[in-house]
Design goal:
Layout lengths: L3 E2 L14 H4 L3 H13 L7 E2 H6 L12
Parallel strand pairs: 1-2
Length: 66
């Protein structure tokens, strides 16, 4: 799996979305998410969106949220 964003900018998590009230009783999931965001090499080195689209034949699918 690769990640891409406009201009290859690393995605951020809005502080409000990591508030415990959104996690309910799934605080372990919150912890896993924060570790992933901090340590995942592909997440922290995203392709540019243009590059991902250019190389679309390399993928089974593309998800472009927004």
């Amino acid at each position: 799996m690769n990640f891409a964003s406009p201009n290859g900018v690393i995605a951020t998590i809005v502080n409000e979305s990591i508030n415990d009230k959104y996690c309910g009783n799934k605080l372990n999931l919150k912890k896993e998410t924060l570790v992933f965001v901090k340590n995942n090499n592909q997440f922290n080195n995203p392709l540019t969106l243009e590059k991902a689209i250019e190389n679309n034949v390399d993928y089974i699918g593309l998800v472009i949220p927004g």
